[in-house]
Amino acid sequence: MSSLNATLATALSGLIADQGALEATSNNVANANTPGYSREVPVLVASDPVVDDPLTLGTGVTLQSIQSITDPILESQIQQETQSQGQLSSLVSALSQTQVNFTSSTGDIGTAITNFFNSVNQLSTSPADLSLRQGVLTAADNLATAFNTTANNLTAQTTSLNQSVVQTVGQINQLTSQIAQLNGQIASLENVGESAGTFIDQRTQAIDQLSSLVDVSVIQSNNTLTLTTASGTALVAGQQSFQLTTQPVASGAQDIFAQGNDITSTIVSGQLGGVLQARDQQIPSIQNQLDTLAAGLANAVNGVQTAGYDLNGNLGTDLFNPPPANVTGAAASLSVAITDPSLIAASSDGTSGSNGNADAMYALNSQPIIDGQNPTDYYSGTVFNIGNAVSNATAEQNASSLVLQQLNDQNSAVSGVSLDEEAANMIQYQQAYAASAQVITSINDMLYDVVNMNTLTT
Amino acid sequence: MRINPDPLPDLLAALGQNEQQINTDLEQISSGLSVNVPSDDPAAAAGLVENANQTSQADQFLRSIGSVQGELQNADSTLNSVTTILQQAISLGVEGANGTVNAADQQALAVQVQGIQSQLVNLANLSYQGNYVFAGTATQTAPYVLDPTSPSGVDYVGNSGVNSITIGTQFTVQTNLPGSELFSSPGNDAFQALQDLITGLQSGNTTAISTAVGEVTGASNYIDQQRVFYGNTLNQLDSQTTYLNSDITQLATQQNTLGGADLPAVITNLQTGELSRQATLESMSDTLQSDLFNYLK
């Protein structure tokens, strides 16, 4: 046998549960545009029944919990793809800046090389002509300047990449501190059995941001979350974060240290990975190709110059200041050693009218003097290399973009707030609330009848 | 199955890509090039570097050819003059060997031949744009000086050096003949022949005169043969000029193929892109504005 009070309690539980469900709906609607917010779903469970022989009577509804709907696997995939995206976009950005040095213009290295050899060819038509000799010196100067400018641009870019490293490490440290703090807040809620959905969303957001900066590996165990780089360097362990530091090394580059160890070469993904790849691999490779070209040209030209005779009948001297033996820095330091046009060794027999040596110097432009290639072929190869690097990275970045977009779409399908759905839910809970309220009104009337029972028998 | 309730990021991404494509098209239209940076087409960019180099080299070859053509033409016509005056010397010699002339006449003829000798020195010392043409590679000094103590009446102070210039890929041409080969070649020495004729006329020795006339004839024929070098070389320069001009035209076509923008295609692409952008914007404004909340009163 039931009692009216029990029925009242049941109806009341409906009011409370619907109110709570509306709270979740309201929270969803308010956070419809919050980045990283996962929609909340009220978990309504029928309350435990009581046994009142021979009947089993329900006792209403309990709002057991408000659950955030997430897909951890999707989130993990998004973090992985974000790392790739970060690495590729910063690599493309850096290399796009590098390749500007190799677009064809009136001052580019390829044009300067061609103009230099043209001036030598012109000199060979009248080797004693001082103005033609000056033409060769001017062309040599322009060639040196073209190399210097490009090398300096690459150095300047490296400097700015170093600054980028320092800034990014600062951002990483901020995020890891934030995540450690969130870990603490989540732990304190979950330890007392509460749902920590909002904090978990914030932490996921922070990990996503961190993923765009550096490669991150997430290990979830027993209510604690550990973050490391892909190679195992600890970033966050539970409530403790491990700060990274930057220090300049012998070459002047800013390297990244964790607990005293240089971890620079272990970082392969995220924006930091992309910047490091550009700074430590791609740009030095291009720089090396330039140095090889500059040194090869200078040495070959000097070789011919010193084998011939100048306008005064003396053995020729170096046209370019000799480049370093190990080639490094040759492009930045290339310079012309002669200012007197009569010192150009055009002659092969000591007379002022002989052009044999000038013709031999011209022939260099089609000889394999740079690593088995002629100067123009070597330069066009360098242009291809940098263009190809940018083109490949851009294609990969576009592909990664699409994948990330799709993953985000899928994630949004799982966790995104649909205003249509919330509106429908709102109506549902509102109706249910109204119905429960109506039940309470009826019970109220029935209670009144009970209380006033003996007065009705008249 | 739930679908993604938030179409905005995708639409924005599509708009972004669309804008990037429009920008690329505009850049191609304004520059006329499909390859503006190496990454646009790395292989074509490398090809364009080679193309620019070859075109510039071809232009230089044409300039160099032009620079030496003048000197070669001058040398050629000078040798024509040399042949003419040597023919005059031969006539004078023939006259001098004729039994009808007397010693006084022979002296007069000798003086005329001396005049021809001076003319030959001047012709052999041809200078073109500051360089002595027949001096070998010692071009800054006149190759022939009159020297009464020398058996041939002159001294050759030039050398036997020859110059060559490169006017094509691995294609060089010799650009001069030294005087030592043209005018003072042993056995065909024009100066020696003239000197012998002068000596013969001055001495009145008919045999000597006749012998000298034979020498001058031989030297004149020899110079005619050597002169062929100049004609041949000028012909080679002409052919090479024709070849280089057609090469330059081909290179220009290749440059356009490699890096020229296909303007009709790009413009069509641009128009399509702009239409697509319009459509996206319109659909965004429609779909983003309505949900169930709008319909609840």
What this model shows, in words?
The complex is a heterodimer of chains A (458) and B (297). By secondary structure, chain A is an alpha+beta fold. Chain A has two domains: 4-69 and 417-455, no CATH class; 77-404, no CATH class. Chain A has ten helices and eleven strands. In chain A, the strands form four sheets. Chain A has a four-stranded antiparallel sheet, with helices on one face. A three-stranded antiparallel sheet of chain A has the order 9-10-11, with helices on one face. In chain A, helix 6 packs antiparallel against helix 8 (356-363). Chain A is rod-shaped, with a radius of gyration of 38 Å. The model of chain A has no long low-confidence stretch (mean pLDDT 93). Chain B has 297 residues and is mainly alpha-helical. Chain B has a domain at 50-253: f41 fragment of flagellin, N-terminal domain (Up-down Bundle), CATH 1.20.1330. In chain B, the strands form four sheets. Chain B has a two-stranded antiparallel sheet with strand order 1-2. A two-stranded antiparallel ribbon of chain B has the order 3-4. In chain B, helix 1 packs antiparallel against helix 7. At the A-B interface, helix 3, helix 8, helix 9 and helix 10 of A face helix 1, helix 2, strand 2 and strand 5 of B.
Number of helices of chain A: 10
Written as H for each helix and E for each strand, in order along the chain, the element string of chain A is HEEEEHHHHEEEEEEEHHHHH
Q: Let me know the CATH homologous superfamily of the domain at 50-253 in chain B.
A: f41 fragment of flagellin, N-terminal domain
Mean pLDDT of chain A equals: 93
| Largest sheet data of chain B | 2 strands, antiparallel
Beta-strand percentage range of chain B:
5-15%
Q: Globular, elongated, flat, extended or rod-shaped: what is the shape of chain B? A: rod-shaped
Instruction: Domain count of chain A, please report it.
Output: 2
Bin the strand percentage of chain A: 5-15%
DSSP summary: helix tally of chain B:
8
Q: The CATH topology of the domain at 50-253 in chain B, please?
A: f41 fragment of flagellin, N-terminal domain
The chain pair with the largest interface is:
A-B, 64 and 57 residues
Describe the strand arrangement of the main beta sheet of chain A, using strand numbers.
5-6-7-8
Strand tally of chain B: 8
